[in-house]
Amino acid sequence: MNRPARPLAAALVCTAVCALAVGGCSAPGGLGAGEPAPPVSAQPQPESLWPLWTDHSVSGPGKPVGTREPPPQPLKNAPEVGPGGLPTVNVQDVVRADKQMKAFAAKGWINAPGKVGMRPPVFRDLTGDGSQELIVAADAETGRTALTVYTAEGTRIVPILFTIGRRPAVETIGGDLLLRTAADDGSEQAVRYHWDGERMRVVSDERRYSKSLPGCESDRTPQPRRTDRYGQVCE
């Protein structure tokens, strides 16, 4: 009797089963043979509103709007918003009607960093309604920057964000506004604002350290946050 034939037949059966498992069957939830992979949706990336100022921002975190303030009120004596939306209004008249920004209107307009005055206005849809909001920023003699976001409610103009910081780099991520400021200690603060139906509200406020601080050990292994003897975070 030829006994080696039985192990050979078993091996062939095993090979066929493995081939079916690898090539002919897909794992639960996977793709079948010849089925195209679904397209990968691109994630929104930061988009600088004032590129010339992005690499010239100086130290100091911004001052976000308070969370217990009453609802934003329309500006008095501001121009009315027509069918064309905020891009058609006189921006200087809007700034003059805003008590928090009118002091900057007399400084004039600037088109490059290192000067004092109003930056060129920028328009972005931050509320998700398809209409563009007006974003204005002014650089002061003190090295600080005041930034305000305006939206339109019918024909009225409403400020929905006011913040002051040490000349932050201002970006948008999708419909959110991101303000980044760098400090002398090597840290960077990133404050992200999101429309909540009433105003642009802080949804994240992060500080990261890119430089080693005195008294901190340096290594590349990811570890939980540590603090040195001065209470500073070591990265």
From TrEMBL:
Q: Which domain of life is it from?
A: Bacteria
- What's the source species' lineage? Bacteria, Bacillati, Actinomycetota, Actinomycetes, Kitasatosporales
Q: Which UniProt keywords apply?
A: Signal
What spans are recorded as compositionally biased (Basic and acidic residues)?
A: 217-229
Which residue intervals make up region (Disordered)? 54-86, 206-235
Name listed for the protein in its UniProt record? Lipoprotein
Keyword hit for Signal = yes
UniProt feature coiled coil, ranges: none
May I ask which residue range the UniProt record assigns to the signal sequence? 1-21
> What PROSITE patterns does UniProt report for this protein, alphabetically?
PROKAR_LIPOPROTEIN (PS51257)
